[in-house]
Design brief:
5 helices, alpha+beta
Amino acid sequence: MNRTFLLALSLGVFLGPAAASAGPRDDVLQALGKCAAIAESSARLSCYDGLAPQLRAALATAPARFSGAPSLEQQKSWFGFSLDSLFGGGEAPQSTPAQFGGERVPEAAKPAETAAPAPPPRLDSITAKLSEYAKTPFGKFIVFLDNGQVWRQLQGDSGEARFRRTATDNTVTISRAIFGSYTLKLNDSNKTYKVERLK
């Protein structure tokens, strides 16, 4: 697979979710797909070169649905998913479209930013009641929270949880731990279990 095709594929994945809300992005994606289908390398490169201005314009325009900081409810629904590892974790938080991807751009070249509202504080834990729980064939638990999330005890965790008979009588608190991991406490117990989010 050549590098230009991988670039087109990567841009398609990146722009794809936003394409439904932006017509120019649709056009660029369709054109990139046509370029990728060209077999002869110099013609394919010419096709990509011809799309460069349109591509820059499409990437510079942030879709409306991604503007602004995420609400507290959005943060709760995302809690437990490690998006940082997919999108360059370890960098300073980027909370505006103007900041996105600019960690290596020289300060002089960065566009001036308009004042943005302060993002809500980061969630460090959530508490929820169970709607159901189950055990895997290896004796590890899976909990289904009343907020729709699903968490699983890690295979390497040796603890054995004791749930109340009726699922809805159980409450869990899931907290951030070191190195991007998560721990779960069940009901009033101080015992912690290592968990990961499935849904």
